[in-house]
Amino acid sequence: MKRRDFLKVSAAGAAATAVASPAIAQSSPEVKWRLTSSFPKSLDTIYGGAVEMAKYVAEMTDNKFQIQVFAAGEIVPGLQAIDAVTNGTVEVAHTAGYYFVGKDPTFAFGAAIPFGPNQRQQWAWFEEGGGNQLYDEFLKKYNLKAILAGSTGTQMGGWFRSEIKSLAEMSGVKMRIAGLAGQVMQKLGVIPQQIAGGDIYPALEKGTIDAAEWVGPYDDEKLGFYKVAKFYYYPGWWEGGVSLHVMINTEKWESLTPAYKSILQQAAARALLVTQAKYDALNPKALKSLVANGVQLRPFPQDTLKAAYKASHDVYAQISAQNADFKKLYDSQTAFRNDEYLWWQVAEFTYASLMIRAARQRG
Amino acid sequence: MKRRDFLKVSAAGAAATAVASPAIAQSSPEVKWRLTSSFPKSLDTIYGGAVEMAKYVAEMTDNKFQIQVFAAGEIVPGLQAIDAVTNGTVEVAHTAGYYFVGKDPTFAFGAAIPFGPNQRQQWAWFEEGGGNQLYDEFLKKYNLKAILAGSTGTQMGGWFRSEIKSLAEMSGVKMRIAGLAGQVMQKLGVIPQQIAGGDIYPALEKGTIDAAEWVGPYDDEKLGFYKVAKFYYYPGWWEGGVSLHVMINTEKWESLTPAYKSILQQAAARALLVTQAKYDALNPKALKSLVANGVQLRPFPQDTLKAAYKASHDVYAQISAQNADFKKLYDSQTAFRNDEYLWWQVAEFTYASLMIRAARQRG
User: Fold this and answer.
1) A266/B262 CB distance under 8 A
2) CA distance A261 to A268
3) Beta-carbon contacts below 8 Å between A and B
4) Is residue A304 exposed (0-12), middle (13-18) or buried (19+ Cβ within 10 Å)?
5) Is residue B148 a contact partner of residue B242, using CB atoms and an 8 Å limit?
């Protein structure tokens, strides 16, 4: 063999090795990501969902794929979480889409819109009703890919310093409420206020605001609102079912192996299940404790709900006329929601209804 | 170096290799399992859940962990699925616990008991209310480890050839219904019949039975019951939320690496989410189609529900007095259920209630 031929063979051999070796390495490469949460650690259920997800990913990959979770403010403030992903500062955020309606109201469909589907219906829309595809298509503009990774169920309507007995009494109420719900509330005469979680309590205590909404019994009790506002309204008609997502930088997503993509998907699904289970397990205890502390539970007055329903759909018509993305997701989710409630009223609702009657009879 | 020393060194080297190499191999060993489903392929939503789970497991491991799914009857009949796992014929089954109440009524808590928690509440009990631990503790006797891997939501109450207007009219009705629900129905005067899925239609057509329950609109429509029994009752109070599990041979489970255990857990969680989403997405369309085909929807009469509620709790008291395992799971799940409905009536139920009213007003 001439030396030249030998080199050719070697080169071919090396090339073959070069092909084979990345194929092995690729199946479980070392990947380290940083996740910025929109939530503080004190929201242990929601914030904890990202921690759970990261734990599952590490377990499934023998720690080769590691996601380090940072609370809101540790890298960027909670409401800048997706900007940090879009521009590549971090690989992934854990957040609620409706925090970003200021950029585009279409973001809201990732979390909740007033009078939207309930939690299970919303999951069904994402998974089997085209929601995931439509949301991802919209998010491409922001260089983001979303995966469902948490939920809260129906939230509460919030804390009021004075009792509200009719729609007329909503007029002039200064309420901490943001996003699309704030726009709807404004149509009811409410003066919506944007206040960060940690600043709600002092504002409510001083009377700078008259009302505030947060999440539900478990999270609300920890912030102590019941000490300064006795009336706790329900339901949170603007949050009939709230979903959270991990939002991933699309290039970073595409850089993952097929196995790692799947691992992230399944870990997020389990985080969704666990987060919802935690809320469902913790809220009853917190509700009992709040009532024992003198909290007055009140349903929103019927005229308020009716007006809010109409105002919400007016807002949707206005936005849809100007925003094709919003219209596309709204039309899809609303058609799905309408079908869902036709079915829900038959089996799920009548079952819940009879079980609640039985619970009341047990006392 | 003497030849003997050389051999010693070689042996040490070989030992070192033997230690290092399994450590690498162990992180993603080749594993091939067979899964026997209790369901026929025609139940595409439920049967499909196991197929989805197997797909995720394969994706996440680059096909190194493969689970081959067999429909009911391909290896063993559907109702012998767990026997095949207990005795090691196959590694894993996909099934509903209540199929095995003949062995022990405690199995029912894995799927559903009459007037139990609804679907989301049941998940919360499994994940955060101690249900998983209690169920696994019970299943040890059968050499089984269970993981939640599918659900249906509230099922329908079934198909009746004649209208039932009161409890008195339930007396003497021959109904295809099994398990604990069959025992309760018997206390209402019903004559419960055990008939396999494929044999229900001819029995209902010939009038050998007067009524039959199966699942819900999507699955029921495919079996064509509406052609031979016009009255479709709701809700299925014996199946307020039905869960499915993969049940794994405990030695096979323990033989998995920690990564593979986690992979199976997360894949099952996603299968749960996807199966429920499919039911929630498919049932509304099927319900509309059934109604268009002349099906008469009927709620169970109030006196029937009341009597059934009482009879169920009588049955539970009887079994609890004799069966410590049943009592342990019953006490845990019932306390959890009672707390859940206290909370459910506030936010979730009033939200569903107002959305259903709005749906009716839209027409």
Assistant:
1) no
2) 11
3) 247
4) buried
5) no
Which tokens is B33 given?
């399992």
> Which chain A residues touch B62 with a CB distance below 8 Å?
27, 258-259
Q: What is the largest CA-CA distance in chain B?
A: 98
- DSSP string over A221-271: HHHTGGGT--EEEE--TT-SS-EEEEEEEHHHHHHS-HHHHHHHHHHHHHH
**CA-to-CA dists, residue A58 to A65, B62, B262, angstroms:** 6, 17, 10
By C-alpha distance, the chain A residue nearest B237 is A351
Q: Residue A362's closest chain B neighbor by CA? A: B338
Structure tokens at A10: 């070697």
pTM equals 0.92
CB–CB contact B59 A262 (8 Å): yes
Evaluate whether B53 touches B149 at the Cβ level (below 8 Å): yes
Contact B285 A339 (CB under 8 A): yes
Q: How many whole angstroms separate alpha carbon A17 and alpha carbon A4?
A: 20
pLDDT tens per residue across span B32-91: 999 999 999 999 999 999 999 999 999 999 999 999 999 999 999 999 999 999 999 999
Mean of the per-residue pLDDT values of chain B: 93
Of A24, A63, A120, A214, which to mutate for an interface test with B (greatest number of B Cβ within 10 Å)? A120
- The answer to whether B226 and B292 have CB atoms below 8 angstroms apart is no
Contact A60 B259 (CB under 8 A): yes
Tell me what pLDDT residue A252 has. 98
Task: Name the residue facing A348 among B153, B288, B359 (closest C-beta).
Answer: B153
Count each helix (H run) and each strand (E run) in chain A, helices first.
13, 11
Q: What is the pLDDT of residues A120-155, one digit of tens each?
A: 999 999 999 999 999 999 999 999 999 999 999 999
Mean of pLDDT values over A48-67: 98
The C-alpha atoms of residue B94 and residue B71 are separated, in whole angstroms, by 10
**CB–CB contact A273 B277 (8 Å):** no
Q: What is the pLDDT of residues B331-343, one digit of tens each?
A: 999 999 999 999 9
